[in-house]
Amino acid sequence: MASTTAHKLAKGQKEISVSEFFEKNRQILGFDSLVKSLIMGVKEAVDNALDACEEARILPDLIVQIDRIDQREYRVTVEDNGPGIVSTSMPNVFGRLLYGSRFHAVRQSRGQQGIGISATIMYGQITTGKAATVRSKVYGAEAAKEIDIIIDTKKNRPILLREDFIPWNEVPHGTRVSFYMNGRYVNGKQSVPEYLRQTAIVNPHASITLIDPDGKEYYFKRATEQMPPPTKEIKPHPDGIELGTLMNMIKATKERSLVKFLQKDFNRISERVAKEICAAANMPETTRPSTFTLETSKQLLEGMGKVKIMAPQVDCLSPIGDQLIRKGLKHVLDNVRPEFYAPPVTRDPKVHSGNPFLIEVGIVYGGDLPKDSPVQIYRFANRVPLLYQQGACVITKAIENTDWRRYGLEQRGGSGIPFGPAIILVHVASTKIPFTSEAKEAISSIPIIQEEIELALKACGRNLRTHLNKRERRAKTRSKFEIVQVILPLMAEKTARIVGKPVPDLKGTITKIMNIVWIDDSVTFEKGRHNVKVTVYNYTPKRQRFNLHTVLPEGCLDEVTCKPHPAEVRADGKISWELPYIPSTDTYEITFSLDGLDADEFDETNLYISGINPIDVMGADPLPGDWDVAGVDFTEVEAPAQAAEEEEEPDYDEEGEELEDE
Amino acid sequence: MASTTAHKLAKGQKEISVSEFFEKNRQILGFDSLVKSLIMGVKEAVDNALDACEEARILPDLIVQIDRIDQREYRVTVEDNGPGIVSTSMPNVFGRLLYGSRFHAVRQSRGQQGIGISATIMYGQITTGKAATVRSKVYGAEAAKEIDIIIDTKKNRPILLREDFIPWNEVPHGTRVSFYMNGRYVNGKQSVPEYLRQTAIVNPHASITLIDPDGKEYYFKRATEQMPPPTKEIKPHPDGIELGTLMNMIKATKERSLVKFLQKDFNRISERVAKEICAAANMPETTRPSTFTLETSKQLLEGMGKVKIMAPQVDCLSPIGDQLIRKGLKHVLDNVRPEFYAPPVTRDPKVHSGNPFLIEVGIVYGGDLPKDSPVQIYRFANRVPLLYQQGACVITKAIENTDWRRYGLEQRGGSGIPFGPAIILVHVASTKIPFTSEAKEAISSIPIIQEEIELALKACGRNLRTHLNKRERRAKTRSKFEIVQVILPLMAEKTARIVGKPVPDLKGTITKIMNIVWIDDSVTFEKGRHNVKVTVYNYTPKRQRFNLHTVLPEGCLDEVTCKPHPAEVRADGKISWELPYIPSTDTYEITFSLDGLDADEFDETNLYISGINPIDVMGADPLPGDWDVAGVDFTEVEAPAQAAEEEEEPDYDEEGEELEDE
Predict the structure, then answer these.
(1) Domain B243-306 top-level CATH class
(2) Is B318-466 CATH 3.40.1190.10?
(3) Strand (E) positions, A57-204?
(4) Cβ–Cβ below 8 Å for A657 and B184
(5) Interface confidence: ipTM more than 0.95
(6) Cα(B636)–Cα(B639) distance, rounded to whole angstroms?
(7) pLDDT of residue B650
(8) Which residue of chain A comes nearest to B416, CA vs CA?
(9) B33–chain A Cβ distance below 8 A for any pair
(10) Residue A644 above 60 pLDDT?
């Protein structure tokens, strides 16, 4: 019995082709519901088009058209102005899974697996039985090549049903791919227009047109003519390299000595560092890579672990940038008029398994955002919006793992998705995004990535809290103010009438009760200028003098006009004033205006004070310790207590391993 | 520029081998953190061992041993008493991804992808540089074959470093696989012992021994000698078949006529149904499959959609069963002594994309389970516990999408994971589980699967609510009782003393105030018998008579002793008593005892009443309408209002498409 089973099983064993595997597991590719399938189809074609344009340094012009064929069947057409695809490559690019140009490169791009577009064409073929049509023209070609293509799923190879040369004179170069698929077109939170809208947010250099099945046109206008800087291909960074990977690299290297191999085949290993590693591994610099064994490879890996290696350059990555994140968010949120955009945070690059990555976070708060629902989460990976599988994503886990009660959001038990009128945007940029599946919907919970996201969230959360604290303190003091200023004169008047004496001057009394320096600021925007007015009220019984500081946004320092003239203006935008003595109950005013910013690029002034006890001041924070105010006669004040509390690391143990997954 | 890019890109394009793909994307296989990698490694080997034993109808005896090699490196060894693997198959089974015997079969099994164990061996090789060792002996063989194996990831082919024949006399047949990998051994909620404990819950026929890195032994004892019934391989069911799949089947069939093709190549298509389909598609029964085109295939698919086809047989599936779910849960929860195990719910099989599946749900409530945290979710797919990616799983989505406030759990806004002292267990059994990735950690959100889980959750939720309602009503009445019975006599005594009269008999007065028939029941277990005592108190001013009903658990009907003798005992365990008139303020007692159940198989009696207004009764529910009580003189009462309300379907639109993913 047992024996027959063994032989029966042996007989049944056979190879499974990768396309056959995905044909039966198309949910792994994201084709698990009709709505989602249509979005996936558009996404794969758009990702490819944007990648191709950027690689050729062409500002992308994309046209996406969706035609309804019948109740379940649609035709998706995506046309780009990219460099085109040489005709011999077309069959494999579109008709073969696990085939592509970006898989082996250490460089940020959207497509990395060599699966997406051919999987889409396969799904279309499975559900409709129809071939896809691809047309492409390279620069200088007289005509475009056009093919009708299907996939032989048993063999994972393309079958061409037709190939032609077609004149395509109106287009100098570009690609148009067109396929039929079962799907369902909807509007709403998870839809093709929403996908393209979010794509436009993080790709402001692209122009995207959508023609929906009813012929309605959406036009996502290009917001900037500037391409993102090109991403450079680099060698693997030594951080987190696995033994097996190292052994493969040793086997594959063309270098003849260990010291050269380290220098040439890795990112960020200079000659000096390479020599240090050889010394740390206790191996001669001239060791020939061909002589390495399992044991000596281990020895080398340990040596590499002992030497400090510089973080990777940022130029293999393409972050969106603070300004564009802010702009992008404002772009989305014109209807809900949020109260506050917390200054976005961009972290320095780190490395996971040899791949550099960096995290960007932005938070929006208040206004018409819903108060009693979970915060909205916008997730992006290499400038691609992630609409599905929020629950599976390291971004969500990092948000859930952060105690948002500290930053002014409601959160039961201090974990889970917080509630409140907020949107949290997180962008992960990496030379290799570790997706949880081929559908590229969620990022895997790699400990170092989660840690970096949490640090970025906390930093941005602090920006949010600073704002909320300020708002709350002001509101409290303002109401105290109002009470004192309304009730006291009324009481004085009534008492004076009763005792038949004149009403006394209460200014001094109010001052004594308030005993505070009150700083108020307002920002207005007029004729392309931001006008800021800062008013200092001395509601203390003594005269006061102190120093006032602020930071101007990047790039507008040349265009600032201040009154009075500041004591110091620094190249990084830091400005300081030495105020004169302000008599008790008197006020003092500072104004400045900024040129050259968009209306929505500046909406709140952060004011800092020094040379006075911050407890006596309302409306400005104590000057942080890192201002290092040499050159001006400031009395340093202590950084606020919160700063220390926030420096703590997330809950990882010594090995950088997450303690709990869910 | 654009042209050079096209040519440069073309030059970079190449094939990616599937092993190379997973080498760079090992997080897709679940190898994304050290803790998880070790669990994954154990899981893949254990899944294979259980599948092999079940295929050969052998009660599984598994030994799992984990040795710590150094701080990061472990050796995992899994030995089974399965049928063994014939020696020529061994290299491909363990050294080649996408190779296996279970991929093409429509039958429930754990392994279905042909990826797991070879991916594990690859991960081990990448992280430690070491080969895996596999030893296997088939029934009747004189010696075992033993190989040391690594994978050529560029080619996705096995490389044997050693092959030997080894005497393995103590073992008649079986397989032992042993590999080195980087990992981290922990205890706790997500750990190897927890994985094996949950495996034991849903595989009570298996015996599993774990020897942990410190030499500590865990023994998960076999709970039943009975194998789960063998799962039968079936043809694809016609429901949800895609056009492309149909066309592939038409192309591959050996049948020469349409009517035979339908009958032979599909599950549940009889000759009659096949003829109906031909008629519905308006095609001759003799149509040769070889003549089909895209258009006629579509026509056939439409015809198939018009004919009602029987649901699939359950025998291709292996549900755990109500009794074993209950047993399994009790097995886990001996420490927390829950108050209530809601009767588990098993749904009838349904079909997704031609694959039969069914859902089982159990809920545990109260006791020492934590009151102020989210409920615990136990997820299983084909008898395999799912420990990771809870947020990505359709089981979680179905739970979040259910309004648990109706069933007595706390849930903000009626969606999301509910809070309360409860555990929800969900098992999805299918001939093909649509996992979200090759790591097999979460099930994809296929609309019909989500719908079925939600229906099962609601049914089990109703069982929970019935219990909670009963408990609450009893508690309320009991406290009213206590007040009336304590206060009234005290008042009477005091008043009597003041007015100098004797204390009156209050029995009648209390009765008037309560005006209720109170039914109390208790279950005790002694010497292998469950003793149930039901006491009826007539706290109304009139004499009362009515009928009392209950349902005994399966299989103990022969062993029941009732006092008094019931009016009717039915084969399905339904028992009814006609009670005599019970005078006002009097009581009446019914007892019965059950033999042959385990102590924990019976802990609450569900009592029903008829022939009396249910408003006047506390402690029993009105008899549900579906009892259909012919033969006994019962006055039918209306089914409770809740039943109608619960019949509603989940929020799907007419196409069965989910409206919102997250």
Answers:
(1) mainly alpha
(2) no
(3) 61-68, 73-80, 99-100, 132-137, 144-152, 157-166, 174-182
(4) yes
(5) no
(6) 9
(7) 43
(8) A374
(9) yes
(10) no
